[in-house]
Amino acid sequence: MVAVAREEGVLGTMAKQIEVSDLDAYYGSHKAIEGITMTIEPRSVTAFIGPSGCGKSTFLRTLNRMHEVIPGARVEGKVRLEDQDLYGPDVDPVSVRRTIGMVFQRPNPFPTMSIFDNVAAGLRLNGRVSRSELDGVVETSLKGANLWNEVKDRLNKPGAGLSGGQQQRLCIARAIAVRPEVLLMDEPCSALDPISTLAIEDLIAQLKKDYTIVIVTHNMQQAARVSDRTAFFNLAAQGRPGKLIEMDDTSKIFTNPAEKATEDYITGRFG
Amino acid sequence: MTTPSTATVRTGIRPISVGRRVKDRVVQVLICLAFVLALIPLASVLWMVVKNGMQRFDLEFLTHSMRNIGARDVGGGAYHAIIGTLQQVLLASLIAVPIGLLTAIYLVEYGNGGRLARTIGFFVDVMTGVPSVVSGLFVLAFWILVLGMPFSGFAGALALSILMMPVVVRSAEEMLRLVPRELREASYALGVPKWRTVVKVVLPTAFTGIATGVMLAVARVAGETAPLLLTVFFTDSINNDPFNGPQMGLPLYVFDQAGRPTDAAIDRAWSGALTLILIVMLLNLVARLIGWWRSPARKGS
Amino acid sequence: MTGAESTPEVEPLQYGSAGAPESGSALREPPGELDRGETGGPAMRRAARRRAVGIGGARGDGPFRFAATAAGAVLLAIMAAIGAFLVVKAVPALRANTTNFLTELTWQPNATEPVFGIGALAFGTVLSSFLALVIATPVAVGVALFISHYAPRRLASALGYVVDLLAAVPSVVYGLWGIAFLVPFMLEPSRFLNRYLGWIPLFGGDQVVGRSMLTAALVLAIMILPIIAAISREVFLQVPKAQEEAALALGATRWEMIRMSVLPFGRPGVISAAMLGLGRAMGETIAVALIFPATFTVTFQVLGPNGNSIAANIANGFGEATETGRGALIASGLVLFLITLLVNMGARLVIARRKEYARAAA
Question: Do C204 and C126 reside in the same domain of the chain?
Fold first, then answer.
């Protein structure tokens, strides 16, 4: 962590606030989420919770324009990163995704690439990078993902050979190697064992010093443990669009939520 | 650590470089071009076949043979070849479909991934790669030269059936595997023996899919020339008996006429090609229609 | 589950289908009960037990099972018989041959002193097929990528069908089109190649004609393009969505995503597709029989009036062959059979290593 701490002065400028206003997302003619408005604070962890199908993952994917990758999917509304609209007419989704990184539910390292190449993959997209610079970034990123000590002797081995938890941390290292401003995590621990989950949660706590982090989770304890703010999503019925019910400080949501539905959900009455 | 790369100093959405954008565009154009390039020969072939084929595509062509048509005469037709092709393809299907279907049933229902099943599966794949001329040579060597049988439509059918079998096996196997396990189990639970389950439950469920595969296999062999050349031989006359004496086949007719040096023969070759393409396309269309008719039913289940 | 959460569901299925056949290995399962690829949950095992009872007790299952197994055995027997009977009929002709079959270039098996060899024919077969492969593979991969990743989703399957139509055109029709259209058409481009790229040995030579090795290779390329494109397309469509999204989420453009995720995943599939195409091209008969000038020279100058192949020679030489002549043609067919067998088995082995390709190549 020393390396990351030393860079904080520079990296500190990276975290950005996200403002979402009146956002709808569709799959073809099916409206998956409706009328979402929220502000995501910089250098903090925001957790999205809610029952299956409430659209929290869909919403997360609209934040870096990954939603529209699915055929027939589209978005209406505004997402602002500081003062730039991500869905503005002259904004290239490719550059949005480069600025807002993402970690997926299942670890998805590139199977044919080595550990080193996996982390370097994003950087190499941006043209020629010198080997020494690449070495430096790979080391920083792997250290930032708490993976360096485990893999430093086998950087040239395939990433697919790591354990599930290591693979997920490799994916986080890959995401932070391109120095995004925001890091989106879509249920990053749901495919992992408890020990790996703990390692990832520790990592999230460290990363929030430098990044704006948004995490979708099914696990309410996890939301309570890692997040500063929590947003609760729900849907009126199957097939109806999901909505944001309530968003507040995590401690408030879990102790004294404003909405009845939130309370029912966190006390385990449904979902 | 060293100073971070220049990109980190800038903030906000960082646009990607022009070079990357251009490369993406160039590749997109190249890939679209590849597709257009692939369609040019198809369009050209179809256009020429229709344009040149229409000149002689008349009633006389469809109802007359080449008997008593001299080397330089106009007229004549492909009736004998059409009859031959239909008989040969039908016979080939009668041989290949049962064997192919039973093999698929073995692979799916009885093989259990054992060594025999894997061997058969592998050689079915390899068999799809057997050149058509080799299957013709095999029937020539085995049926005509060793067993002393005459050149005949049936010999051609044997050669075609060898080409059909692997295609039938593969498509039928794929369809049988799609039949849900629950359906079989429901039948077993009623005490129905396995073979009756296969015949009464599995095959009817997969029927349309298998039919599609068979039609595509038929369409594939209907256009084969080389095996016929070596087994059916040539004739200019109508021979309605596929088991005796040389027959004609439509592809063979096209090959034969295309090799003759007169314009009248070349015209006949084009008309033969048009007839052949119409038959093959019709078979393909029927296959697709069966498949299309099936798909909503499968979604509903 | 509504559509909202359905995307991640797609890819575990694919992992499942990739892993299942191995886990259902024959060694672990009692014979005669479980279907291949099934891994037994409790419900499965119950069903299997019932099935086992059914097999023992049911009349009619024995004969049916026997018929199914026999049909499979017939297929194996046919493959063996093809080799055996070709050998049987080739040997007498090879005995009568007065020269070395493998190295001789001429083909006069009908003479009283038969002289024939596979040399020139095998050379022509290999050269024309490789040229066809070199021409067809890049275009086919482009077509496959177009259908799998560029074309609008609604159109994709229809466009795929249009490409498949290329494969539905009978070989003899390509031959006819070749001599009537392509041979005269190719004259000018061939002259152009000869004039400006003549320093490359392939395009060198003093004589340039339309009926050349290059024209035949072009027709072969058109004929093998659909099979390479179809298999590549299936393989590209099976790239796990998670891999593609990993690249996209890093800020990759579409082409960069294809280079990072699609091509590495699809490479073995494309290689075996190309090998299958090579096998097709080698065995292709009638189209090239009509186009090749049927000479027996060995030259790399693909624009000149040279070219022949084993298959074309069989089609052209069969009509006037004597008994020894037929035997000689059968011997050449045996060589062709063995070459294509090797190429195809190689391709199948590459595919077999990746189970998820198995269906694509059927």
Answer: yes
Residues of A in contact with C244 (CB under 8 A): 69
Place of tokens 């297929």: C75
CB contact under 8 A, C250 and A108: no
pTM exceeds cut of 0.80: yes
> If residue B101 lies in a helix (H) or strand (E), which one and from where to where?
helix B79-105
Q: What is the largest CA-CA distance in chain A?
A: 56
Distance CA C8, CA C178 (A): 49
Which SS3 state, helix, strand or coil, does residue B248 take?
A: coil
How far is the C-alpha of C156 from the C-alpha of C150, rounded, in Å? Answer: 9
Q: Supply the ipTM of this predicted assembly.
A: 0.89
Per-residue pLDDT of chain A (271 residues; tens, 9 = 90+): 334 433 433 444 556 789 999 999 999 999 999 999 999 999 999 999 999 889 999 999 999 999 999 988 999 999 998 888 999 888 899 999 989 999 999 999 998 899 999 999 998 887 778 889 999 999 999 999 999 999 999 999 998 889 999 999 999 999 999 888 899 999 999 888 898 899 999 999 999 998 899 999 988 999 999 999 999 999 888 888 999 999 999 999 999 999 999 999 988 877 6
Binding-face residues of B in 265-284 toward C, CB within 8 A: 266, 269-270, 273, 276-277, 280-281, 284
Q: DSSP string spanning chain A?
A: -HHHHHHHHHHTTT---EEEEEEEEEETTEEEEEEEEEEE-TTSEEEEE-STTSSHHHHHHHTTT-GGGSTTEEEEEEEEETTEETT-TT--HHHHHHHEEEE-SS----TTSBHHHHHHHHHHHTS---HHHHHHHHHHHHHHTT-HHHHTT-TTSBGGGS-HHHHHHHHHHHHHHT--SEEEEESTTTTS-HHHHHHHHHHHHHHTTTSEEEEE-S-HHHHHHH-SEEEEEEESSTTSPEEEEEEEEHHHHHHS-SSHHHHHHHTTS--
> Using one digit for the tens of pLDDT, what is the confidence trace for C133-169?
999 999 999 999 999 999 988 888 888 888 888 888 9
Provide residues of A within 8 Å CB-CB of chain C. 27-28, 30, 32-33, 52-55, 57-58, 64, 66, 69-72, 94-95, 97-99, 101-102, 104-106, 108-113, 121-122, 125, 171, 174-175, 178, 238-239, 242
Q: What is the DSSP string of A230-248?
A: EEEEEESSTTSPEEEEEEE
Euclidean distance between CA atoms A145 and A159, whole angstroms: 14
Give domain status of residue B11, yes or no. no
Predicted local distance difference test score (pLDDT) of residue B208:
85
- Residue the block writes with tokens 């040969």: B88
| Cβ atoms of C166 and B223 closer than 8 Å | no
Which residues in chain C show pLDDT less than 70?
1-59, 353-362
If one counts the domains in chain C, the total is 2
Whether residue B65 is found in the same domain as residue B49: no
pLDDT of A150-163, one tens digit each? Answer: 999 999 999 888 99
The count of domains in chain B is 2
C221 is in which domain, residue-wise? 115-360
DSSP assignment letter at C151: S
Nearest to B217 by CA among B290, B133, B118, B295: B290
- B92-111 pLDDT per residue, tens: 999 999 999 999 999 998 98
- Tokens representing C214 are 């290059």
pLDDT at res. A192: 87
Which among C108, C89, C86 is positioned nearest to C99, based on CA atoms?
A: C108
Within-domain flag for B10 = no
B145: containing domain: 59-300
